[in-house]
Amino acid sequence: MEVTQRELVTMVHGMLFGGFFLLALFGMFVLLLDRNSPGAATNQPAPRWQTIYLIAMVIVGWAAVLSGAYIIYPWYRAVAPPGADLALYPKLLLTAHPFTAGWHNFGMEWKEHVAWIAPMVCTMVAWVLLKHRAAWNADRAVRTTVLGFAATAFLAAAIAGGWGAMIDKKAPVEGGPSIQLMGSAK
Amino acid sequence: MTEIKLVPQNPANGPIAAAVLACGFGCFFLGALAVAGDGSKGVAAALNFYNPTGPLAGVTTVAIALWLVCWAVLAMRWRNKSLAFGKVSAIAFLFLALGLLLTFPPFGDLLLGH
After folding, report:
1. To the nearest whole angstrom, how far is the Cα of A78 from the nearest Cα of chain B?
2. In chain A, which end has fewer C-beta atoms inside a 10 angstrom radius, N or C?
3. Which pLDDT tens digit goes with each residue over B8-22?
């Protein structure tokens, strides 16, 4: 059982960083809803596990967009030399045919930009929760606003992750040396 | 003797307002730069900080830099202030929505007349 280097990196980007980020964002949203409930308001600092959770979520979010933009996207949009196999050039493969061009012209064009909104917003939300817990607890308007931003971050991450998964099914990022994950089945 | 801890009843919301508003601005900058790069070859070339990634590198780097600068400036100005948070929140959501809308390709194409 083997994968190519580019497939492995794409898996780490989408399934490890992107997948965990999306799950963590949902968890943060639930956490924020709980803080909206009466009785949850205290002026205590965030528990240690929440601090670790929120910082890990922010790191994974930034890792997802940075690995996507600076490692995978260059493979995706590379210019093919004349006569090259377009299977190794996903953008060109998709835009070569009018029936598949929309996956790039709509899907990737949207995904590559909207994705960045999620880590920006979740950095702000995590910072408010960790540094300004007292003001957060004291003001319902603050809680509602932060909750709205968190929902937007989840939406942006879901759009980016969903399009990424669909585009990678239509024109997967492949190539590079093969990596053996397990011995061959007998 | 029992120790009594004083807890501020109305802590300043200025730093939170600064973070929220700057975040809205940052998302708007991202969308606006994405549309500008799409609509102008000159802007796209100027934003091409890293050739393998293309203009996306510049769009995101500049948007993040502007977001952080806005955050720092607003945080300094509003450090000890309590603001009408509803107004700040409304403006922040407006810019956040505009940012989201500008990243949606059909809307950008509509603005650019494509």
Report:
1. 7
2. C
3. 556 688 999 999 999
Would you list the domain boundaries of chain A? 2-79+86-180
CB contact under 8 A, B30 and A113: yes
Go through B37-72 and write b for each residue having 16 or more CB atoms within 10 A of its CB, e for each that does not: bbbeeebbeebbeeeebbbbbbbbbbbbebbeebbe
Cβ–Cβ below 8 Å for A117 and B30: yes
pTM, to two decimals: 0.92
What number of C-beta contacts closer than 8 Å exist between A and B?
A: 103
Q: How far apart are the C-alpha atoms of B34 and B56, rounded to whole Å?
A: 8
**What digits encode the pLDDT tens for the residues A84-129?**
888 899 999 999 999 999 999 999 999 999 999 999 999 999 999 9
3-class DSSP assignment, residue B91: helix
Residue in A with minimal Cα distance to B33: A113
